[in-house]
Write a structure and sequence with these properties.
The chain is α/β, with parallel strands linked by helices and about 130 residues long. Helices cover about 40% and strands about 25% of the residues. The radius of gyration is 15 Å and the shape is globular. Its main location: membrane.
Length: about 130
Amino acid sequence: MSGSEAMTKRTLIAAIADEDTITGLLLAGIGRITTDQATATKETNFLTVIPGKTKVEEIEQAFDKFTNERKDIAILLINQHLADEIRFRVDNYTNAFPAILEIPSKDHPYDPEKDSILKKVRRLFGE
């Protein structure tokens, strides 16, 4: 499959974020819910993480699903403080698609020192 063929299939933005961020992204129109006719299960392109209720394993499962299983995701947005909880997986992710972008949340400011993409760029330039 050529690069352009892969891009035409990757049309969605996925998100793993806190409730406020997910609400804003859904209001912006990124949400998509599909129903698998065979199993009658619903599949979304987002995970709302609720502090104290959502387990790290659920975040890991959503990350793996969005990055490995789903072939329709072009970009994965993840709150940086949630990426910190699964930092090993985020830092070791090397595929071009979906692109992973760490974003701030209302209660957790963005820290460029933790961003996995900036770390890779610094290594590339020998910093």
